[in-house]
Design goal:
By secondary structure, the chain is of the alpha/beta class. 40% of the residues lie in helices and 15% in strands. It is built from 7 helices and 7 strands, in the order E-H-E-H-E-H-E-H-E-H-E-H-H-E. It has helices spanning 16-27, 39-47, 61-73, 102-128, 163-183, 208-216, 227-239; strands at residues 7-11, 31-36, 52-55, 77-82, 145-150, 188-195, 247-250. The longest helix is centred in the middle third of the chain and has 27 residues, at 102-128.
């Protein structure tokens, strides 16, 4: 799919991986709708000319519908990149013997998994209403759009304290192929990226000794990922029509240790 001239919607666009994806799509010629609850960061990105900022909670049906509506007003919606998410940690039973807070578990799943699905279902309906795009070779392709979700390597190797986070990201992995099959007749691809450790605000919460140990556990290169590398994969997924129904690890060969 051609990025230039396409309309793309990016959630979690105000910072980190979402911001990198949004700026990468904009630089490649896409028209952007930027979604985040961070009004200051979102407005800053919009003021830079990257796209239209829509303050929205991805778990809210009305907020999500408004974001999709603003995207389709710019033209046929072709791309959704789901990057909104949280990563708070807690043990199932803490050192004092207290059980994991159930409301916290539900909140993390609600934002990371339900929020992803909420945006996916509404954006897919918007994409399905568009005519298929040309494949660049004079043929009409069956493709109407592509959804890119953000999972995590924690979906496969969740660490101590990541029960809720790992479960939410594993849900995204499990959703990927099913959604791709479900939306195939509508000409919509679904691909997920499972990032390792990237230089984002979330990584700043990790203590230095833990950061050093994680770097040593990587195969190569032994460094944290750059957000531009995540954005590069987003662009390739959009362009490469043969990528579908898969979760792609982007982690320098890191396999997470228990803690």
């Amino acid at each position: 799919m051609r990025i230039e001239g396409s309309v793309a919607l990016v959630t979690g666009a105000a910072s980190g991986l979402g911001r990198a994806a949004a700026t990468g799509l904009h630089a490649s010629g896409a028209k952007l709708v930027l979604v985040d609850t961070n009004r200051e960061g979102g407005k800053e990105l919009a003021d830079e000319g990257v796209g239209t900022f829509v303050p929205a909670d991805v778990t809210s049906e009305s907020d999500a519908r408004e974001a999709v509506s603003q995207a389709t007003a710019l033209g046929p919606l072709r791309v959704l990149v789901n990057c909104a998410g949280v990563g708070w940690g807690a043990r199932i039973v803490d050192k004092s013997g207290n059980p994991h807070d159930l409301a916290l578990f539900r909140q993390i799943l609600d934002i990371n998994l339900v929020g992803t699905f909420n945006m996916l279902r509404l954006a897919a309906a918007g994409m399905a209403a568009s005519d298929p795009v040309a494949d660049g070779k004079g043929r009409v392709a069956a493709e109407c759009g592509v959804v890119i979700n953000t999972a995590s390597i924690a979906a496969f190797e969740g660490q101590v304290g990541q029960a809720a986070y790992a479960a939410s990201k594993a849900g995204i992995v499990g959703l990927t192929l099913t959604a791709a099959r479900d939306l195939a007749s509508r000409g919509i691809r679904v691909v997920s990226i499972a990032p390792g450790l990237f230089e984002t605000p979330m990584l700043g919460l990790v203590p230095d000794p833990t950061r050093a140990a994680l770097v040593q556990a990587m195969a190569s290169p032994r460094r944290f990922g750059e957000t531009a590398e995540f954005a590069s994969l987003v662009l390739e997924i959009v362009r490469n029509a043969y990528l579908n129904g898969e979760t792609i690890r982007l982690d320098a060969g890191l396999r997470m240790m228990p803690r």
